[in-house]
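@channel sequence for tomorrow's demo:
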Amino acid sequence: MSDAMKFTLPPGKSAPAWRGWVLAVITLVLGGALGFIAGPIVHARWAGSAGTAAKPGLIDAAELATLAETLEKNQLYEEAANAWAEASALAPPPEGEKAERLFRIGKNLHLAGRMESAIAYLLAAEAADRDGQWRQSIDRLVLEGLSVLGKEDVRAYQAKRRLSLATGEPDDADKPLGEIGGEPITETQFRGYLRRMAEHMLAPTLGATSPDARDEAIEAQAERLAAPEYRQQILQQYIAGEVMVREALATGVAERPDVREAIADARRQVLLSAYLDDYLASSLILDETDVKNAYEANKARYVAPEAIRVEAIVAVDDAARTAASVAIEAGTAFGEVQAKFSEAEASDAFAAWIPRDGEVPLVADNEAALAHLLALDPGEVSPKWFAGPDGQWIRFRLAERRAERQETLDECRDAVEADLRMEKQAALLRQLEQTLRAKYDVVIHGVPETGELAKEAAPQ
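structure tokens (generated this afternoon):
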């Protein structure tokens, strides 16, 4: 292995744990800066020896890098770390890429459960990371690794040390909202949690939205969750989850085969979702011509049904209903009776158009009320009262009727774009699946292909 990528932790001494760890950190940082040479943590098995008298190996550095990526994709993390280390021994990365390579080795060791070796490589990556590009990821993995090893005192020291590495005055985003074992919980972390919560809450409604509209909806929901009346409760929920995760790591539950499999599956789902989001954002483009053509081709979808608009008197009880009935029978204008005997806020609930297959606000028997109202003429006052919630009674006047009609493109643009986006998305995903099946040489034994792929693959 090359000088730039080899190191070991100093041997343990019979001294307090924190003192040994501080010495390890100092040695690593100095070693990274001076390029010291020591025995490798990850041992070469594929490559030959490095240097001027190098012996040829089975595969070269570029092939090792390809192998490492393949091993990562197949979740063979310890073998991936070995391959990255050996590729680095044969062809050390440029100075600007050294931190990334060390981080990658450390992360793979972390995922493989080799926490001590993982932390060593992560600290080496930290020493090589001149511009702080990997700092947050290194912080997270180092602290998780220390929790798994049960070194909570060292973890607390590392948490405080990492906070002190920040230069200058922290802005509002970096000011701690609290601490867990000396590790700060920052506004940035909390905001990220709010955004993930918002995205989860909105997931059922985001399928047909554009990327920009999706981001706007998530940000708006996150802002609502950050409101003072919810903020403290959600922060407590976030912290409760964090301490339970730390305890789960400390108890070793993450090493159970079923848990490791579930974590790997969750990782696959996150990767798939992120990849598809990026792919569709760059590939799914709607222009005005597409939208107009889709509207013209599917006009039957975009028809505004027959609808009515009503005015209502909402009487709070039997006495108010009787008084309002007397006034109407005496010839008092409907609006005057409404102003005198109706609850103003309840009456406002009837401002919107009610389609033929829609719902009449407040009434207990919607079907009966809608059929009755559709039979009235514009301006006609209903002779009937309909029961509402909490003892209320409702009487209507049909204000306006609107016949079924074709919607203009401007009126139904959102629906047209959503439908078109779903159609294009389905076509893009079918095309992507075909391309990737060919790229990765997919063969399914003993199961005949069905559906679109089978049709497209069939000989013409």
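heads up for whoever presents: Residues 304 and 433 are 38 Å apart (CA to CA).
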